[in-house]
Amino acid sequence: MNLNIQGLRVLITAGANGIGAAIARAFHEEGARIHICDVDPNALAPMRASHPSISQSVCDVSDRAAVDRLFADAERELGGLDCLVNNAGIAGPTGAVHEIAPEEWDRCIAVDLTGQFNCARLAVPLLRKSANGSMINLSSVAGKHGYPNRSPYCAAKWGVIGLTKALAAELGDAGVRVNAICPGLVEGPRIQGVIANKAEQAGITHEEMTARLFSGISIKRFVDANDVAKQIVFLASPFGKTISGQALSVCGDTRMLG
Are 198 and 207 in contact (CB under 8 A)? Predict the structure, then answer.
């Protein structure tokens, strides 16, 4: 299927690994022009080697000065912006709320929620000039369900949906769509680390915790990052021109998180 996004100018935060790298590759396959960033300069090297046409910056999205530099780089490389994918995020701490260090709470909110604001505020003037402007914010099924012992992450991801709804209403007059994607349990090191931490907290094995999590999911397998990426590329295409203000789940029908 030709999504008609050849030459689409896309900025993807945390685009070097995991979901972000899958998103970058999916846009690249459709002929888009892409700029990515990552907080770790070493993480960018494999993408530079495999996709030299994808331009890059080092950026911590919680650092507003770094985000200013990121957007200057992206605008210089791309000549404008048609799509922002707010993908950067961290897992944050695992533990009961009274056990969480305040600085861990602050860091999780700073990256997972405020980082999206930092990027959105600079993207909006550019997206308003686009004939096919869109923003896709990465939330989570933890932004729809209570997630015990994961309060910072859960709070940030619920906040992302609120931010998405507000921006969709603000930008509709310019035809700019804003949506949130809510992945479920995406296969990779991050979710395995979360499962390990939750298992330790509960005093059960890794396998038992995995089974507990899947007990609230209809399709009992991990989500592939490529499935998330393809949904995002579709939303950024002209076929998504009337989809806005939505929190779309790619999660195998997650009904609860244990």
Answer: no
